[in-house]
Amino acid sequence: MHSLWLTGLLSVLLIIPVRVHAWGLTGHRIVGAIAERHLQPDAAKKVAEVLDGYHLQDVSNWADEIKSERSQFVQSLRDWHYIEVDKHSGFGKVTVKKWPSNLYQALHFVIRRLEQRQFEPPLTENVLLRLLVHLVADAHQPLHVGNGEDLGGNICRVRWFGSRWTTSLHSVWDTKLIESYKLTYSEYVDYLDHVSQDTVTQWQKMQLQTWLQESLALHVSIYPSDRGFSPKVYCAKDRASIPDKMIPSLGFAYQHAVRPILHQRLLQAGVRLAGVLNHIYGDQTAMPDFTLVDAQ
Questions:
Q1: DSSP conformational letter for 22
Q2: pLDDT tens figures, 216-235
Q3: CATH code at position 213
């Protein structure tokens, strides 16, 4: 009886669509640590002061760690981690009248508060900075910019390196790809952080909407579609409705194909996070104006 109950529970858990943590623990730490390397001295000093001596990588997962708290404030942040984009209407005009309802609005909101030094509990400067570190990374995880059809790949079932158990495409991008390289976050940073100053400048000049458009454009490369597989078949809320033979099996070929995308998005996130922080705590003329002009 107990085994039947457990089997039933596992079946339910496998089909419930949930939002999971972007990039996982290691990915967020990679982004934070890369950003630390690209901070200007004044910005680095101010960041350390605001974070009470902690580094960006130390607080990079805080926004996910608090998700289990039931306070109204914490629950109001849940939609900040992602955005669903209708392929016909695009991003549209960003307007935040009271409180952000998606990742795009949240980034504008947090950056504006930090720029204008608008701090009031619970949105203290420390909290806003912790949120910023996390949300910039989220914006660069391609599946956190959803297509409006499959919950950011959370209902897309795949098999990872021949496992008999399926997992979600979102989970592959959050954790499994990064973990497959068996590197600590500091080793990963040493491996990735070799970028020219010209490239750093180019990446940091791009607006927030561009970051999200880049993520959305990468979908065509990261949804398995070879050998007859179609997202229309292997993406469904009801796992039982997906034929086993139509579930993609991802392994070395997929890992090799998407590796450049994974590494560039991690690196871009770290470099751009540093750029935003240098803009906020250093020369505010050196970066694009991130202020949300039409905010009310």
A1: S
A2: 999 999 999 877 789 999 99
A3: 1.10.575.10
